[in-house]
Amino acid sequence: MKPRRKSRERALVITYAQDISGEQATLGDLAVELEEASDDAFAESLVKASTERRAEIDGLIEESGSKWNIGRMAAIDRSILRISVGELLTQETPPNVVLNEAVELAKSYGSEHSGRFVNGVLDAIAKKLSRVTTPNI
To answer: Domains of the chain, with CATH numbers?
Structure first.
């Protein structure tokens, strides 16, 4: 498995745990539970972005045209969307890579419809963000 994909999975586990428990979890907590190394700067950056920019990220998700209140979404889909939007906002990863990785996470961990749902929401957000950040010429 590619290192960044594994990092995204780690970030997903932490974000999901935080969402379900309502408590802050860290990569160190995950490492103890899974007996893995906790030194994963990319995973930590995704968790940090999704936590620190939660209100902005949730707003983008709800505005995406999904017609879903964020609280009514499946927790795993919500967590995938949060780390992916956080990555779009804070990393230099090409949007198509973020979308593809998110869809793969959704297919692996979500329901049979999660991949399509996550793709649609993220595609709308990526388009919105590219319009916002592209200067008018």
So the answer is: 3-133 (1.10.940.10)
State whether the Cα torsion 71-76-79-84 is positive or negative: negative
User: How sure is the predictor about 21, in pLDDT bands with cuts at 50, 70 and 90?
Assistant: confident
Give the CA count within 13 Å in the CB-facing half-sphere of 24. Answer: 8
Q: Of 117, 109, 12, 16, whose CA–CA distance to 68 is shortest?
A: 117
CB atoms within 10 A of CB 133: 7
Please tell me what DSSP assigns to residue 70. Answer: G
How much is the pLDDT for 37? 53
pTM to 2 decimals?
Answer: 0.84
Q: Is the pLDDT of residue 87 over 70?
A: yes
Q: How far apart are CA 120 and CA 117, in angstroms?
A: 5
- Which segments within the chain are labelled E, that is strand? none
